[in-house]
Write a structure and sequence with these properties.
Pfam families: DUF6262. The protein is mainly α. Helices cover 72% and strands 4% of the residues. It is rod-shaped.
Length: 342
């Protein structure tokens, strides 16, 4: 009796497993139909979690799977016309979208390359700006040092501070008829009207004319008439007085000035002319000392003298007037101080 009960339990358990498998198979077939997937023994076995051998053993299930399989095959073979057109249209859209995507990707690559080039240029400009900023700082520093040196030279100048004021007072005391026109002489007069050279009034007029031509002054008819009516001594004294006046001031109307000098019998100040000659000698000595110091300190390498000025040549081969060096602060006193500091 005990052995009989065990067999019945096994039979019931097997029947229960078979029923579960049938239900899973049915649910699997319904799932495949719902999802629109192919129905065959393999797909049904996968979704129902049963073996294909079991499916073949069950007649009803086998028949149903074969029926659904054949039905699905017929549907695939007979695709509706509208579906074929829809597939072609979709394929055309897909190709168009694909080409558009490729074009956009190419444009993006070009823009990316252009952006990288702009960033590179920006970095280059930043470096260039930094270099310019450092150069401006260097030049600003040099300018400040130059201004400080110029101020030091100005304070250490040997000229008294009131010299400019005195010069202004002298300018204010000038006669009104001696206004600025002809530039003052930079050196003592070298052209003289020699009485022994003038055989007659015409020769004297020619000598005066030559001297005035050298000064850039032309004789007018009124002045020539005045010269003809005056004595040789009066004319010579007036010309010397004119040269003396050029040493200290500018003359606005040289012809009128000389005419008045002849008519009023003006005479030169001999002491002023002698002082001028002595001053030229002192200037030459000062220039010689200045040049030797400047050359020793490596500022200049050559010199030359004309009738009107001294010139020096720097190490670059450029010529400049001695006065321009003095005006820029390179005075004899400054060079002497530099020589002592070395």
């Amino acid at each position: 009796m005990k052995h009989q009960r065990n067999i019945e339990g096994l039979r019931q358990n097997a029947q229960k497993k078979k029923q579960d498998a049938i239900e899973r198979t049915e649910k699997g077939i319904q799932q495949l139909i719902k999802e629109g997937r192919s129905i065959n023994f393999k797909t049904v076995a996968e979704v129902a979690d049963v073996s294909t051998a079991w499916l073949y053993k069950e007649p009803e299930i086998k028949a149903r799977i074969e029926h659904l399989r054949d039905q699905g095959t017929r549907k695939k073979k007979s695709v509706p016309t509208h579906q074929k057109v829809s597939d072609a249209s979709n394929n055309s859209k897909y190709q168009a979208l694909k080409q558009r995507i490729q074009k956009v990707e190419a444009e993006n690559r070009g823009l990316r390359d252009h952006l990288e080039a702009i960033h590179g240029r920006q970095r280059s400009l930043v470096d260039e700006n930094e270099g310019l900023r450092r150069e401006i700082e260097r030049l600003t520093k040099l300018l400040a040092e130059s201004r400080a040196e110029t101020e030091s030279l100005r304070q250490g100048s040997s000229l008294p501070s009131q010299s400019n004021e005195q010069a202004s007072e002298l300018d204010e005391d000038k006669p009104k008829h001696l206004a600025n026109k002809v530039t003052p002489l930079k050196s003592c007069p070298t052209h003289e009207v020699a009485p022994e050279k003038a055989q007659n009034k015409l020769d004297l007029i020619n000598l005066v004319k030559q001297q005035f031509d050298a000064l850039g002054v032309q004789l007018n008819s009124t002045l020539i008439k005045t010269i003809k009516s005056a004595s040789e001594e009066t004319i010579i004294n007036a010309v010397k007085a004119f040269e003396e006046a050029l040493l200290t001031e500018n003359i606005k109307k040289p012809g009128a000035w000389l005419k008045r000098a002849i008519e009023e019998g003006w005479k030169p100040n001999e002491s002023l002319l002698a002082s001028c000659v002595q001053g030229e000698v002192q200037t030459k000595d000062e220039f010689s000392q200045w040049f030797e110091l400047a050359k020793a300190q490596g500022r200049v390498k050559a010199k030359q003298q004309t009738e009107t000025e001294f010139s020096v040549q720097d190490n670059a081969g450029e010529w400049a007037s001695w006065e321009s060096y003095l005006e820029s602060g390179w005075t004899l006193e400054y060079l002497k101080r530099r020589a002592k500091q070395r």
